[in-house]
Amino acid sequence: MDGITLPGRAIGTPLDRFDGPAKVTGTARYAYEHPVDRPVYLHPVQATVAVGRIVAVHTEAALADPGVLTVLTHENAHRVASLDDPEVAVLQTPEVPYRGRIVGGVVAESSEVARRAAGLVRLDYQAEPHDVLLRVDHPDRYAPEVMNGGFATDSIHGDAEAALAGAAVRHDATYTTPWQQHAQIEPHATIAIWVDDRLILHVATQGVHRLRESLATLFGLEPERIRISSPFVGGAFGGKLHTHPDVVLAVLAAFAVPGRPVKLALTRQQMFAEVGYRTPTIQRVRLGAGPDGRLVAVSHETVQQTARIKEFAEQSVTPTRVMYAAPDRSTTHRVVPLDVPVPTIMRAPGKTPGMYALESAMDEMAIACGQDPVEFRIANEPPVDPELDRPFSSRNLVACLRDGARRFGWAGRDPTPGVRRAAGGWLVGTGVASSMYPVYRMPGSTATIRLEPDGRYTVSIGAADLGTGTWTTLAQIAADALAAPVERIDLRIGDTDLPPAIAAGGSSGMTSWGSAVVEAARRLRARVAAEHVGAVPPQGIEASAEMPDNPELERLSMYAFGAQFAEVRVHEATGEVRVPRLVGVFAAGRIINPKTGRSQLLGGMSMGISMALHERCVLDPRFGHVVNHDLAEYHIATNADIGCVEVHTLHEEDPHVNPMGSKGLGELGIVGTAAAIANAVHHATGVRVRDLPITPDRFFETVPGVRTLAR
Asked: Which of 549, 576, 591 is the last residue of a domain?
C-alpha cells in the first residue's frame, strides 16, 4: 500500500494535514475509486413490505436485460457459514424483518444497467402486521442485559424516589431526540474481488481488521484469506464501524462472478435503511435540590428503540452517572424492539442524546432554584466520580465554564426570558451546557517501526483516517517517540496486511494506536542502542509492540470535559431560529495537533447545531420506512446555517491517560451543543422546547384562530 511522505515537526504543532494535497488534487483513492480491470456493477433490490416473507421470485425480465450477468436472491446466493448475526446474514432466508431490507442484487456490466434491471426484479410477499412506533408504554419494552460499550443497564445509588419526594425544589420533565442519520459525504462503497483464492476488498470502513474478522466468521474463511484496504474514508461518524449488509452483498456477488471485480456504492436513499442510524429516545429527567441549590437526587430514565431482528442498546443515560454530585441517583435504560432497521453508533453515542436531556434539565433546575446556570453547575461539581467513587485523572469542567463565560461575555446576563430584541423582530437569548466524553482505550493494536538504512522510519499499523487527521497526528506521535524529525516518518495505515489495530471509534484511536507506536519506538531505540551502536544494518532494523497496559485505569476515572455557550435569535413572527454565535471551551489533555484538533471540535459543534435545529428522520407508520430519505429533505446544517463558531482549548496536563497525555476530540464537540442552543432558545422566547429538532412549529399555539408565541 502506498503511504504518504510526511513533512516535519512534532506533537503540539498545528501542522497542515499531510493527506491534504492528495485529497484536494483528487489523487487520494476512496473505496469506489480504486482502479480494477473489467469491473462489474451491483445494485441492491430492497424489500417493499415492512414485515413478511418472500413467497415468489421473478427475475426473468431482469436477466433478459442486455448486460445483466446475474440476479442474486435468497434462492441462489452463496450460503454463509454463520447465521448468528441476522443483520448481515443477507439473502439467506425469505424472511423480511423491515422495509428496505436487501432481498436481492443485480450484477451487470454497467451501473446504469444494474440499476435499471433491479427495478425489473419482482418479488411476491406474504405481508404481516408491523409495529414501528416507539412509545414509553410499549408492551414489549424490556431491560437489556448490558448496554453498548459494556455499560450497566441500570445504576442505583441510594433512594432517589424518597430523596425527590423530600426535595425543596423539584424538576420533572420528558425530553425526546429523533431518529438521525450519519449523512457522511462518502456513501458506503465496496469493491470485492477474488484473486488467487484470496478475497480482496476496498471498503469505506472505520476498522479494516474488525471488518475482516466479522467477514471471516460470517463466510467461514481464515482471516488471512481476506485482505481489506481502506486508506481514506470520506466521513463515518460511527456509521462505518460495524459490518453492514451492503458489504456482505458485495462479497456474495463476488462469489457469483469469480474473477470479476464487483463495485457497489449505495445510493443516499438506500443508506437510510441499510447502514444504521442514531436511535430515537424518550427521556425522563427528575432532579431534586435543597434550598441552597445543591442537588440531593437525580433520576434519569430512557426508553429507546432497537430492531426486532437484532438488539442495539445505546448507553444514553451514562453521562448522568458522572456529571454532577447528588447522594441519591437512579439511571435506567429500556428498549423497545420494533420492525425497523438496526440502529448503530453515531457520533458520541449515548452522550449526545443523554446530555441533551440532562443539560436541558439542569438549565430548568437552575431557573427553578433562582441561580445562574453556570454557577448552578459549578455548585454541583462532584469531588470524585459519583459512579465509581474514584478520583478523576483530571477534571477541568469548572475551568471550562469559567473561561467560556469570560470569552462569551456571560457576566451581567439578565435571566429574564423574552426581553432582549434585535432589529427586524428577532428575540435574542443565550444559553450554556456542559460537554463530556470518556477517555477510551481499546486493546488489540500493534505497531511496527522499521529504521531503514537511509535513516527514515516506516511506521506500520492498521489504523484508520476517517477525515480526522490520523495521517498527520500519528506521524507526529511517532516523530516525538523516536526523537526524529517528522519528515523522516513514513506512515502506513488502513490495510489488513499491516499489524492489527482497533477500529476508529469512541475517540479512542490516538490513545490506542499512539500508545502502541510509542512503545514500539521505545523498543526500537533500545534495540538500536544495544545491537547497532552508530550504524544501521543494510537490511534495516525493526521492533513491534502492542498497546501496553495502563494500571492507572483501576485507580482513576478519565474524561474530557467542555462548556458550550450559545447565542440564538428567534423570529417572533415566523419562529425561525438562528445561531449567530457558538463558543466552546474544552479540556482534552494534550492536543496532538491544534489545527486538526480544532477542526474536529468545530465539526462536532456544527453537527450539534444541525442536531438542535434540523435533523430528524420522519417515519411513515403505514409503510414502516423513512420518507425524507435523501439530503434534500433530511436537512443537515450547511454554511448558511452556521454562524461564528469559536473553539478554545485549555492547557491540561494529564500524565495518567496515556504516554502522549492526550484525550479524544472527535466526539466531545457535539456533546452539549444542542442543549446549549435549546437553553438559549428558552432564554430568547420563554418557550421551553424539549423535543428536538427545534423547528418553528414548536413555538406557536393557536388561540381563537390566531397563532401566538407559546409561553
From this structure: 549
Give the amino acid at 510. M
Where in the sequence is the domain holding 162, given as residue range(s)? 148-179+278-439+555-703
Q: Peptide bond preceding 223: is omega within 30 degrees of 0, i.e. cis?
A: no
575 is a domain residue: yes
Residues 431 and 568 in one domain: yes
> 354 with 320: CB under 8 angstroms?
yes
Q: Report, as residue numbers or ranges, the catalytic residues.
A: 667
Residue 449 and residue 391 share a domain? no
CA distance 100 to 97: 9
Given pLDDT bands bounded at 50, 70 and 90, which one contains residue 534? low
Residue 27, Ramachandran bin (φ over 0: left; ψ between -120 and 50: alpha; else beta): alpha
Q: Is the pLDDT of residue 533 over 60?
A: yes
- Spacing of C-alpha 27 from chain mean position: 27
DSSP states along 47-101: -SSSSEEEEEEE-HHHHTSTTEEEEE-TTTSPPPS--S-TTT-TTSSSEE-STT-
Cβ–Cβ < 8 Å for 205, 199: no
Residue 399 pLDDT level (bands cut at 50, 70, 90): very high
Residues 479, 348: one domain?
Answer: no
**CA 562 to CA 435: how far, in whole Å?**
5
Task: Check pLDDT > 50 for residue 622.
Answer: yes
Q: Where are the alpha helices (DSSP H) in 443-571?
A: 470-482, 509-531
Burial class (CB in 10 A: 0-12, 13-18, 19+), 136: middle
